[in-house]
Amino acid sequence: MAKYLVASFPWSSDVGNDIANALGLTHVVLETKQFPDGESYIRYPIDLSTYDGLILIQRAYPEQNTRLIQVMLAIHAARDLGVKRIHVVLPYLPYSRQDRRFRDGEPVSLQIMLSLLSSLGASSIITVDVHKPEAFRIANTQCVNVEPFELYANRLRGVEKLVLLSPDIGSLWRVRKVSEYLGASFSYLEKFRDRVTGEITMKPKELDVAGKEVFIIDDIIATGGTIMEATKILKALGAVRVHAIATHCLLLNMADSKMFEVGVSSITCSNTIPTKYSVININQLLTNAIKGLIT
Ligand code: R5P
Predict the structure, then answer these.
(1) Which CATH architecture has domain 4-146?
(2) Angle of CA points 74, 133, 191, to nearest 5°
(3) Residue from 99, 174, 226 to probe ligand 1 pocket by mutation (most atoms less than 8 Å from CB)
(4) Average confidence (pLDDT) over 78-91
(5) Start-end ranges of CATH 3.40.50.2020 in the chain?
(6) Which helix (H) or strand (E) holds 67?
(7) Ligand 1 atom closest to Cα of residue 167
(8) Of the residues 3, 84, 191, 235, which is catalytic?
(9) Active site residue 191
(10) Closest residue to atom 9 of ligand 1, CA basis
């Protein structure tokens, strides 16, 4: 069997430790620094020449532009030093929401990121709950999307008068998957985003949520605008409590406080991006996915 090393960036070393321990592999933390002009430096603190394969782990948020450059440097260095297979783990995949050209003149940013990583030598890219898995069709490298939905269902088991809600049609498949584990009822709202201002509006809709405990499930909470708009509608329809579950919680500009102000009762996130709400640990799911690639 090929000899693999796990290498993680410092802010991802908890993920690296868990994966290396579970797979019985050596784990090193990459050295990083920023030059005075802002450019990135990385270094493997180990001789890579005895390894055939590498599992490279980077939490690429916050500071996604810098952290993606670090990953690129690390992929190229490993290839250059003779490593043949490089599996890149990006629990949150930056630029994944720009997976198509929404307005004339825009780039398809996700395609650019994936092709850069692949052309530098990534054998595969492993991520969690990517915005739209079908967007991986444009990738010229193997992409693995790890789904955390069973973990969400496990947290909701036993909740009475439970209704699952997708804040838009785009996330309905997520909610459907969680509901399949629980047999819970689910519905969705219709969201519109102004592509220029980013402003969100939602179409009022009759939903059977009066007296119910509603859990909104989405991939990302960024500004919190989506969850807040949905919460206002759900509260007006008589929902007892509204909760938010999301895989990647960016929580920009105190989005959590703003969400609580409009009546959100709880926020649950995964540890793809560490926050005080990151109670869902996806490291075991990542390990399982990697196992499938290296054995
Ligand atoms: C978009 O379609 C995503 O699934 C999320 O709904 C969105 O990214 C959330 O962003 P925000 O919190 O800024 O509304």
Answers:
(1) 3-Layer(aba) Sandwich (3.40)
(2) 120
(3) 226
(4) 98
(5) 4-146, 149-280
(6) helix 64-80
(7) 6
(8) 191
(9) yes
(10) 221
SS3 at position 207: coil
> 281 falls in which pLDDT band (50, 70, 90)?
very high
Distance 52 CA to ligand 1 centre (A): 39
DSSP state of 205: -
Is 149-280 CATH 3.40.50.2020?
Answer: yes
The predicted pLDDT at position 295 comes to 82
Q: Rounded to the nearest whole angstrom, what is the distance from the C-alpha of residue 215 to the centroid of ligand 1? A: 16
Cβ < 6 Å from ligand 1: which residues?
167-168, 170-171, 200, 218-226
pLDDT, tens digit, 9 for 90 and up, residues 201-243? 998 889 999 999 999 999 999 999 999 999 999 999 999 999 9
Distances (CA, A) of 225 to 37, 71, 193: 35, 31, 10
Pairing of strands 53-57, 85-89: parallel
Q: Residue 119: its pLDDT value, please?
A: 97
